[in-house]
Amino acid sequence: MSFCARLFGPAIVAVVIHGTFCCGEAVAQTRNPSEAMRLQVDYSRFRGDDKNIYVEVYYSFPQKGITYQRDTAGFTGAVAMSVAVMAKDSLVYSDQWLVPHVVKDTSSMKEGMNLVGVANFGVGEGNYTLKVLGKDRNNPSRQDSVLMKLPIKMIDASKMTLSDLELASNIRQGTNGSVFYKNTLEVIPNVDGVYSEDQRCHFYIEAYNLLGGQGSGDYYVKTTVYDAINREVISRERPKKRHSESSVIIDNLDVKQLKSGTYTLVIGLLDSTMKPVSRSGKKFFVYNPTLGVDSTLLTAGSSSGSISDYAGVAEADIDKEFAWAIHESSEAEESQYKQLQGEDTKRKFISDFWQRRPLGLKEEYLKRVGYANAHFRVLGREGYKTDRGRVYITYGPPDDYDRHPNDSNSRPYEVWTFNAIQGGVIFVFVQRSSGGDYELVHSTHRNELHDENWGRYALTN
Q1: Is the pTM of this model over 0.85?
Q2: Residue 99 maps to a domain
């Protein structure tokens, strides 16, 4: 097949609804303070020309996470975006653009509705750092940035190989006017990789060098899904004809069969003898309350706290929900729960537990648990047990994130800022061991760990 020409440069975003945990309340004239401008970034690398690899950078941020001002069009907000690619201290590529967004009524915006966009460029072989920055135009103090390693290697023309895998919220036949158009398709990226039970996990990938190298008969595409502990939960193969030197592979998965949790999607190329020759994968997350608990939240029930909400709920699931409540429960309540025996007794206890709390707290708390479990899980440890998970569940989404996952002179670290707590506080988390969890090392909150010399934990040896 003949691939369409690549269009380089930033693309204006579109509004896309990804998997959501619940609907939120209406917002006023400006930003809803409960939703931060958390920037999500992902990228995929595709074959370019003889000297460059083509890189697509996908980004998203909550529609409700930016500040809106009333004008003649209704309510207008905008984010100033920039992208930079660096090789050590040298700037290899940079661009900046404005992402405007206009709504007639801010009360029509719902939580989970994201502004999604794509930027693209070509870059030669090398090891780079990618920086993406988003600033709220109407409130420049609000911003978020992401630093990521960007290794680039040219495609080996002597063997069949795959591009990176792109997760999508939808793939359909497109027109050249769409910002997400490529190879006759409109591919809308799912940047954070979260899918709810009523969605399908769409994906896009490109295969190259199909007419040379490994055999001349059919080749095979293998789709495999692994759960959080690397168990195979989905596997299927399908033959493909070698009609051309390259091919676009699109498909989708029905996530209704998967419990809430973290999964890895792997696409493999097999030659005519069924020998694996190339593979590409990406992590994604599922929120499925119908099938119950894996690593994210249990279905929350109504805010009334009635014991009928827990009718038929298994004892193990009640135990899990109370375990999640560790950041809300008292020592006395925890001691009482340990002494309970039987489902009916525990159903009554958990119902009374939430009834003693303010109306609506249960839903908000469990929503935060769901987010923490989906985003902060590490080494088999559920997100609510981590330091970042505890802070997120206790204080809610930060107003600003400053994340440094790939700085050359320090261990990965994050700084979270909460403007409305105690006149403004920060929390600093450092990944003190390679591949480990981000540990809280400092906070200006008067009830949290305080260590002004926290920088020593971030320094590399």
Answers
A1: no
A2: yes
